[in-house]
Amino acid sequence: MGILTRSTPSKKPNESMKLIITTFLGIAFGFFIGVSFPSLSLTKLNIASNFLPSIDLADIEDKSSGLSTQKVLDDLSYRRDTSRRQNLNETAKIWVPSNPRGAEMLPPGIIAAESDFYLRRLWGKPSEDFTHTPKYLIAFTVGYDQRANIDSCVKKFSENFTIVLFHYDGRVTEWDEFEWSKRAIHISVRKQTKWWYAKRFLHPDIVAPYDYIFIWDEDLGVEHFNAEQYLKLVKKHGLEISQPGLEPNKGLTWQMTKRRGDREVHKETQEKPGWCTDPLLPPCAAFVEIMAPVFSRDAWRCVWHMIQNDLVHGWGLDFSVRKCVEPAHEKIGVVDSQWIVHQTVPSLGNQGESQNGKAPWQGVRERCRKEWTMFQTRLANAEASYYRAVGIDPSTSTGH
Ligand SMILES: *[C@@H]1O[C@H](CO)[C@@H](O)[C@H](O)[C@H]1NC(C)=O
Ligand SMILES: *[C@@H]1O[C@H](CO)[C@@H](O)[C@H](O)[C@H]1NC(C)=O
Question: Which residues are listed as membrane-spanning (predicted)?
């Protein structure tokens, strides 16, 4: 204020007048504020803190130890939204806490919480875009070199299937030589694994319309496989997680997934699981059960959450998906009468990089094993801390 009132002689009268008026208005405004809020002292006028969300720093630190930074940030922005909302105190605006998180300001009737892979037209009425909507989804992780095999695979899946191709070699347009390619969804990201793609592009909310989701490798022989017949058996026997029986053309197959010639399906209840005694020995490390899995919508919603973002090879998943269905021994099974052949062709495993004089596939294999151990450790730790938190002694509970 002192600076404002100190008018200098060199100023023109017009400017001095402006300054006086400004000063007067300033004083009047100050007086008005003082009258309106008599109890408001300057030290209490801490506007900034009122507009910031109340964040407990200790709380953040506690959370960051267990959660990713992104999760903490999401949490903060959510809280900021909530507090902004409270500051506005606009009771006439929409706020529906039961809406999906982040969409509370929308009227529930407009919310489309799930999506699909259905292709639409650019013209006409949206309601008339489809002549039919596929009920199942098949996703293959492919390289162009395997096109002949994928072509014969895809032909086994009728128009009742949405076809998704994950391209790990960056070659996409070449696939247009196949008629079916035009109705397929092509997703091209170099040198990633099936489970990396599945985690990113098959979110349960995106694939929600599909009753069953097939997530298959590219080197499967499907001569003796009929997809509609397969699903008929899956439904008949109530399988939530399944795979076709496997007939290895060379090497060994896990006992559990090996095709039984004399029946439609087999489950754990009928067989003592003949899983390997040492899972790190070659026959067991053969990646089998996660080669051609088929999930029901509900089972996939659970398994998707179990897939770790950094453990891209998915080793160990096959042992743990049983946590997603209850009772597992009834709802997991192998469909023997619709069977496939594992052809063991060099594929993504050869897309590694030579390091320390080792062949590319060796580095990939080593990482697979390392990931398997990491996954098991994570799962065991997560279970232990859960049981500790709820006060159960895991040794006395059934656990698995
Ligand atoms: C919002 O305004 C109403 C009425 O003016 C008041 O009763 C209520 O406490 C306010 N809510 C918040 C969160 O400030
Ligand atoms: C596709 O699904 C419909 C309805 O379930 C069924 O009638 C039809 O036979 C299926 N198509 C094929 C090729 O199996």
Answer: 20-40
3-state DSSP call for residue 197? Answer: helix
The one-letter code for the residue type at 152 is: S
pLDDT tens for each residue of 73-82: 666 666 666 6
What is the distance in A from the centroid of ligand 2 to the CA of 160? 6
Please tell me the distance from the alpha carbon of residue 331 to that of residue 349, in angstroms, as a whole number.
31
**What was the pLDDT predicted at 398?**
54
pLDDT tens-digit map of 171-183 = 999 999 999 999 9
Which ligand 2 atom is nearest residue 160's CA?
1
47 phi/psi in degrees, rounded to 5: -60, -45
Q: Closest Cα to atom 3, ligand 2: which residue?
A: 160
Cβ of 89 below 6 Å from ligand 1: yes
Residue 20, both tokens: 């006086």
| φ and ψ of 368, to 5 deg | -55, -50
Nearest bound ligand to the CA of residue 85:
1
Backbone angles phi, psi at 117, to 5 degrees: -110, 20
Are the C-beta atoms of residues 301 and 219 closer than 8 Å to each other?
no
> What gap in Å lies between CA 373 and CA 368, rounded to an integer?
9
Q: Which two tokens stand for residue 60?
A: 């953040």
Question: What is the β-pairing status of strands 185-188 and 241-248?
Answer: unpaired
From CA 260, how far away is CA 279, in angstroms rounded? 22
For the chain, how long is the longest CA-to-CA vector?
A: 111
Asked whether the beta carbons of 254 and 274 are under 8 A apart, the reply is yes
Q: d(Cα 139, Cα 197) in Å, to the nearest integer?
A: 10
Q: Which atom of ligand 2 is nearest to the CA of 135?
A: 2
The residue ranking higher by pLDDT, 28 or 135, is 135
Position in ligand 2 atom list of the atom nearest CA 158: 13
Give the model confidence (pLDDT) of 236-265 as tens digits.
999 999 999 988 665 555 566 777 777 888
Does the Cβ of 229 fall within 6 Å of ligand 2? no
Which pLDDT tens digit goes with each residue over 86-106? 666 666 789 999 999 999 999
Q: Is any atom of ligand 2 closer than 6 Å to the C-beta of 158?
A: yes
